[in-house]
Amino acid sequence: MLVQSCKATLYKGVAGFLAGALAGGGSTAVHAPREARSQPHSAPRATISLYEHTMDRGTIRRQGCSAAKRGVGGIVILDFGQPAYNGHTYGTYLFSGRFAGNKAITRALYAYAYGYHRCLRRGSTLKITLARGTSNYHPQVPSAYRAGRKWARETMALQHRLNAHPAIGRHVASAAADDVEPAWDRSFHRTRDFFRGYREARTGHAIYNYGSLDGGVGSIWNARQVFYVTSGMKYAQAIPEIYNHAMAREWAELAHIARHRYDRPMHFAGVMTTHTSANHGMKPLAAHRMLVRELASRVPANTPDVPATLTNIRSAD
User: Domain containing 135 — which CATH number?
Assistant: First the structure.
């Protein structure tokens, strides 16, 4: 589908850049506060999540400021690209192709949080959960398990820093996120190892899966594999990509399987879209309504709740 192809092109572009450069040389409570879902509007509005191209803290601080001026609370995912290792430290390859270490990513996230806090209106009660995003796109790491464990520890490190500055911490909480696509890891092994590493760090912070099902359960991954990284693993919650009706049906089918095969609920934290004026994609509120309808149809008893926590992802300017 067009939107998926565009996203894959973003990651492939990074991989191509790096290749050229080298040639030349059980559910549980988690620390993602429900208050962050609250919106001071009659109808839910979407946050803007971003594919990041830079680690310049001034740029990222301005992104946080812009988010505050929009007057929207909820979940914000900053996607820093595929997992990577530079020979000394774990991190990611940004969408510009540059390497970013985990600690530098934490500093960038704090810059966003600082910008968000500074630009809120006086007396604002808005809150966001700020999630450090990566993907399962061909991890360039010696150990996906260690990458996941370190991702979790830096998620906790950001929360500690927010706690040390209560004026900011009142408005921003830390979480993790992973754009999980079965087609990017057909064996499932590296994705599983990353999530296990995250779980074993025992930080208590949510990891949001904001990916797709790529044809639905059984098309690439089986039901147990898909459920594990969306709700089955401790800390995992789903913010599914809902770009069309077919994707909503796929997630509703997974919820049906989870309830009837495993006697477990799906844990949704919201929905993600990638609407722009250029692609004419599905808008966030329409995507949320479509998923809710499909879930009610496929799981009429004990229908999973989908908070009206909406986020629309795009490339950072």
Answer: 3.20.20
What is the per-residue pLDDT for 275?
92
Answer yes or no: are the C-beta atoms of 197 and 148 closer than 8 Å: yes
**pLDDT, tens digit, 9 for 90 and up, residues 60-109:** 999 999 999 999 999 999 999 999 999 999 999 999 999 999 999 999 99
Q: What CA–CA distance (Å, rounded) separates 261 from 273? A: 29
What pLDDT score does 276 carry? Answer: 86
Spell out the residues 6+ positions from residue 16 whose beta carbon is closer than 8 angstroms to its own.
none
Q: What contacts 310, CB < 8 A, 6 or more positions away?
A: 44, 45, 46, 47, 74, 270, 271, 272, 273, 284, 285, 287, 288
pTM as predicted: 0.89
Q: What range does the domain containing 308 cover?
A: 2-315
pLDDT confidence of 20, banded at 50, 70, 90? very low
Measure Cα distances from 228 to 34, 54, 182, 258 in Å. Answer: 23, 32, 12, 10
Q: How far is CA 87 from CA 16, 158, 170, 244, in A?
A: 20, 24, 37, 41
Number of domains the chain is built from = 1
Vertex 62 angle, CA 116 and 168, to 5°: 20
